[in-house]
Amino acid sequence: MTNKIKNYAKGHRGITRMTYVMGTILSLVTIMAFALHEDEKPFVASKKIVVVKDSVASVAAFHKVYKVLMSPRCMNCHPSGDIPLQGDDSHLHTMNPQRGVEGKGLYAMKCANCHQPTNTPGKNTPPGNPNWHLPPANMKMVFQGRSPYQLAKQLVNPKQNGNKDLKKLIEHADDGLVLAGWNPGEGRTLPPMSHAEFKKAWITWLTTGAYAPKAK
Amino acid sequence: MISLNVNDQNFEIDADPDMPLLWAIRDLIGLTGTKFGCGVAQCGACVVHLNGEAVRSCVTKVSRAAGQNVLTIEGLSKNNDHPLQIAWNEENVPQCGYCHSGQIMSAAVLLREKPNPSDADIDMAMAGNICRCGTYPRIRKAIHMAAELSKKGGITK
């Protein structure tokens, strides 16, 4: 009996110790998760992306995403034709530069001939980025003219989105050319929300199931 | 000091890294064949080759060209006998002439990448080079002639 009590007491102390250790670990994980959240990098830091399906939240997030993607700063380089668009009214780019096979222009009309690694000073001068280009000819990734339903479907189809899986799609929010949309050079409007808001909506859409709004 | 290789010659220039390449070429190196037109990459008068590509030197910072190879109209051929220069002369292409160093430098990239261009190819390649005199039909004709000439002699630039 005495031995049983001792064993029970030993076991009880073991459980208490384990609970304490587990609690400490959980607290640390929570603190780390919070820290990552503060840095807005939880999905990049985490190797495993957790998708919790929620069609209502997903569609609501996509409507925000759609507003940004259809703004001139994004859509102008995702035209339905082979000539980029230009300006806040998304007119055809003056001089009619062509997409070319790689999306970098043709002959004497290559993007980087005018578009420098950085924005050129002055109003409506060529905006700059070291990687300025359109999507390539074999995967045009058209935004222009796409309905919310069509664009949502297209964005998650690797055969239409540049072979991107969920992880790459999430990372794409921080792509240099995407970020350039929020540094468009003088004389151009910004997308309709901040990059942080866009990224949040983008990740929310993707991690709640990437639901497409209903086709109309 | 910034090192530039222009027309196969090395230059050390004392310039602000943000200076337009055009100013370095014209004012510091003294090659004035390349012209200033609009200053905002809209007209093509200032086209030079940077590592073989037809960049607009009015918006290209000299820092982008540091240590790279620049080719201007003066270096396109040793004796003004590049097929494009011969064709330009034969067809009497220029009127005032101001835009034509840029026109020829753009056409040189076209012929290098498309040795036998169609009218559509020429239009696509040359749409960014504006000519106020409207010499476009003669430019097109001269590019076709240069393509023929280059079949015989070849184009190196």
Topology:
The complex is a heterodimer of chains A (216) and B (157).
Chain A: H1 2-38, H2 42-45, H3 55-69, H4 72-75, E1 85-86, E2 91-92, E3 105-106, E4 109-110, H5 111-114, H6 148-155, H7 166-172, H8 176-180, H9 195-207
Antiparallel strand pairs in A: 1-2, 3-4
Helix pairs in contact in A: 3-9
Chain B: E1 2-6, E2 9-13, H1 21-28, E3 47-50, E4 53-56, H2 62-65, E5 69-71, H3 83-90, H4 100-113, H5 119-126, H6 136-153
Parallel strand pairs in B: 1-5
Antiparallel strand pairs in B: 1-2, 3-4, 3-5
Structural commentary:
The complex is a heterodimer of chains A (216) and B (157). With 216 residues, chain A is mainly α. Chain A is 45% helix and 4% strand. Chain A has helices at 2-38, 42-45, 55-69, 72-75, 111-114, 148-155, 166-172, 176-180, 195-207; strands spanning 85-86, 91-92, 105-106, 109-110. In chain A, helix 3 (55-69) runs antiparallel to helix 9. The N and C termini of chain A lie far apart (76 Å). Chain B has 157 residues and is of the alpha+beta class. In chain B, strands 2-1-5-3-4 form a 5-stranded mixed beta sheet, with helices on both faces. The interface between A and B is medium-sized, with 20 and 26 residues.
Q: Main β-sheet of chain B: number of strands, strand sense, barrel status?
A: 5 strands, mixed
User: What is the β-strand count of chain B?
Assistant: 5
**Name given to the CATH homologous superfamily of the largest domain in chain B:** Beta-grasp domain
Number of strands of chain A: 4
Poorly predicted spans of chain B: none
What is the 3D shape of chain A? Answer: globular
CATH classification, class level of the largest domain in chain B: Alpha Beta
Q: What is the structural class of chain B?
A: alpha+beta
SSE succession of chain B:
EEHEEHEHHHH
Helix content of chain A: 40-55%
Distance between the termini of chain A: 76 Å
**Mean pLDDT level of chain B:** 96
CATH topology of the largest domain in chain B: Ubiquitin-like (UB roll)
Shape type of chain B: globular
